[in-house]
Write a structure and sequence with these properties.
The complex is a heterodimer of chains A (359) and B (131). By secondary structure, chain A is α+β, with helices and mostly antiparallel strands. Chain A has helices at residues 57-61, 69-84, 90-118, 122-143, 163-189, 191-197, 205-210, 215-219, 250-274, 323-335, 343-348, 354-358, and strands at 4-9, 21-27, 30-37, 152-153, 156-157, 289-298, 301-310, 315-321. Chain A has twelve helices and eight strands. Helix content of chain B is 15%, strand content 20%. Chain B has three helices and six strands. Classes of the chains: A alpha+beta (359), B alpha+beta (131). The complex binds iron/sulfur cluster (2 copies).
């Protein structure tokens, strides 16, 4: 046996702007084990719920993550609505669906850019983020914010999207789809990119199942599960099938995410075609009492919101299980046996969001 | 597998307009809904304090006795919850952002004493205190 050495990785690392620290146990250049430590950016957002009115907390829930901010706010609102037996107007449900899918596109494009950056393809990184910029602009047009949208409230949405705005967005998506196809060809077919992605970081279907992986990370290993299928917002009225791959390596994860972008555009088209007219919010009276567990599918996978209310303005407890937390065990498994040079890419392909994991 | 899969994009880039804007020569056009900063029409405020109670960031202070309304510019998170909850509709969201500053600042607005009804508008911006 050759001598083992330990290489620290993170929390500040050039390719990974996420505060996770790993102790990589190496034998020569091969990783035999990775020991993670997190907790560098804990902000105590869950505790804050005891001091904030449950309506105000929507704006705090959004700030759990700067990428899935819409879905965090929505997950919290849907949980509170279930406790209070509030039926959200149909139009608001469709708006939620559209904004959710826009978040997914923006998150996946961001990730594709980071991936390109991690294997040193700077111009591909710029192209991904150029496309993502269009989504951010659309968000600003429709919600008023580029990153934090503040359009959710318990009982519906705070803003409506006029029909001509939706039409404009659809035509932007048409153009974007074309550009995406060109970009996807580079990610999926380019020789240099393929050599970095193919055949590294395998996670088998059984491992994904046993380690509780979620989201595209799990679907790339062949498990066709998608929380959107459980039916929240307007998803029960939308036709789509979870995108999977059976290979389970880094290439498969890229492939799944790229196809999810196209699927999201399709879902937005369906939602835009079916969106009914009407109110976007109903007034909510009284205080919640009871508990509820809400599951939503974020770009990184399934997030769980647990709310416990006691009949006053202040909730007893909010617990958020973010997808990255569920994906960390799987990530450590894929790291075993890989080359040191591949570590950044392997970590990236679970699309880690450590800040929201620590809340 | 493909070797020159990116060259099409590269060529297109060479002959197309830049994706970025020459800042600051060409300032940004904000969309109508952009949430930049909160503005108050202090003459219509009744100092009910609802905005300050609703504010998730505790950025607003309302002093009924002194007739002042103040906002911590860098504490505000631009959620516009106060704008929605003001019963007199005297708060509004403006598109421009608070300018960067080396120190946190509080903007205080003072309502003119009620006396003659038709006074010229009060200077909108009060003194800049440091938080
Ligand atoms: S809610 Fe409106 S009227 Fe009441 S104190 Fe605030 S700004 Fe003034
Ligand atoms: S916009 Fe939000 S954070 Fe800012 S003052 Fe109003 S309620 Fe407070």
């Amino acid at each position: 046996m050759s001598t083992r050495s330990i290489v620290p990785f993170g929390p500040q690392h050039p390719v990974l702007p996420e505060p996770i620290h790993l102790d990589l146990v190496l034998e020569d250049e091969k990783v035999v084990e990775a020991v993670p430590s997190i907790g560098f950016v804990h902000r105590g957002l869950e505790k804050l719920v005891e001091k904030r009115d449950f309506n105000d907390y929507v704006y705090i829930a959004e700030r759990i993550c700067g990428i899935c901010s819409f879905m965090h706010g929505m997950g919290y609102c849907e949980a509170a609505e279930h406790i209070m037996n509030v039926e959200v107007p149909e139009r608001a449900k469709y708006l939620r669906t559209i904004w959710c899918e826009m978040s997914r596109i923006h998150s996946h494009l961001l990730w594709l850019g980071l991936l390109a950056d991690a294997f040193g393809f700077e111009s591909l990184f710029m192209q991904s983020w150029r496309l993502r910029e269009k989504i951010l602009d659309m968000f600003e047009y429709s919600t008023g914010g580029r990153v934090i949208f503040s359009v959710n409230k318990i009982g519906g949405q705070r803003r409506d999207m006029p029909d001509d705005m939706i039409r404009d967005f659809l035509s932007i998506f048409d153009g974007m789809e074309q550009e995406l196809k060109t970009m996807a060809a580079t990610f999926l077919e380019d020789y240099a990119v393929n050599t970095r992605l193919r055949g590294v970081g395998f996670l088998t279907e059984q491992q994904a199942h046993d380690l509780g992986a979620v989201g595209p990370f799990m679907r790339a290993s062949g498990i066709a599960l998608d929380t959107r299928k459980k039916g929240y917002a307007a998803y029960p009225n939308i036709e789509f099938e979870p995108i999977t791959s059976t290979v389970g390596d880094c290439y498969a994860r890229t492939d799944v995410r790229i196809h999810e972008i196209f699927q999201s555009i399709d879902i937005i088209r369906q939602a835009a075609a079916k969106i009914p007219q009407g109110e976007v919010a109903v007034p909510v009276k009284g205080f919640p009492n009871g508990e509820y567990m809400m599951r939503v599918e974020q770009p990184r996978g399934e997030a769980v919101y647990y709310l416990k209310a006691n009949g006053t303005r202040f909730l007893d407890r909010v617990r958020v299980r973010t997808p990255t937390f569920a994906n960390l065990p799987g990530m450590l498994e894929t790291l075993k046996g890989c080359q040191l040079a591949d570590v950044p890419i392997l970590i990236l392909t679970i699309d880690p969001c450590i800040s929201c994991t620590e809340r | 597998m493909n070797v020159f899969s990116f060259s099409k994009t590269t060529l297109k880039n060479l002959f197309s307009a830049p994706a970025t804007r020459p800042y600051p020569q060409q300032p940004r056009q904000y969309p109508e809904r952009t949430r930049g900063h909160v503005e108050i029409d202090i003459e219509h405020c009744v100092f009910c304090g609802l905005c300050s109670r609703k504010c998730p960031a505790d950025a607003i202070r309302v002093d009924r006795a002194a007739g002042t309304w103040s906002i911590e510019r860098f504490g505000c998170i631009q959620c516009s919850y106060c704008v929605d909850s003001c019963p007199k509709k005297c708060l509004s969201m403006k598109q421009t952002y608070t300018a960067p500053a080396p120190e946190k600042s509080v903007d205080t607005y003072q309502k003119k004493p009620a006396a003659p009804a038709k006074e010229p508008e009060a200077a909108p911006k009060g003194e800049n205190e440091h938080a």
